[in-house]
Amino acid sequence: MKKLIKRYRVFIIVFLAMIILVLVNRPLGTKAFTITGNSILEMLLVIPPIFVLLGLLDIWVPRETMIKYMGEGSGLKGIILSIIIGSAAAGPLYGAFPVAAVFMKKGVKFMNILIFIGAWSTTKIPMFLFEITALGSRFAISRLLIDIPGIIIIALILSKTVSREEVKILYENAKAMD
């Protein structure tokens, strides 16, 4: 029981704070519970399809193929593929992290994983199409032309800054999730 409470202590603290909020300010507390409930519902609708697709990726795509196209020696094709996969992905950013964990298990280069996460968060195709219609093609294309090199530069800096030992621990943790 102690272990369970320790594991979920942040959740318990936040839940108790929300109950106190309801007691102190009922409309604000009710709104907080409503927003939290909607967020949980959204997660429950998004996460299962992502995990189904991850299971299929894990089974259908051999490790050797992932290493060939996105591993250490992949070069420019790994970068381009990371951007394309991240841009074509659907769902909120928290859906990118389980995909990144599967990529780690498959031997994808750390920099390509960072590029994938950056592309998922910044260069989604539906967002680009919305920007073209709402803000104009000049803005949308300019933003994309700034974001893509920015993502690559940030990924390069992070991959050089993070120590090999830390990257190794990340990969080991991803493999341990089986």
Automatic annotation (TrEMBL):
The lineage of its organism: Bacteria, Bacillati, Bacillota, Clostridia, Lachnospirales. One of its GO terms (cellular component) is plasma membrane. Its main location: membrane. It holds the Pfam family ArsP_1. It is a multi-pass membrane protein. InterPro entries: DUF318 (IPR005524). The chain crosses the membrane at residues 7-28, 40-60, 80-104, 110-132, 144-162. It is found in: Cell membrane. Keywords: Cell membrane, Membrane, Transmembrane, Transmembrane helix. Belongs to the UPF0718 family. This is Predicted permease. It comes from the Bacteria.
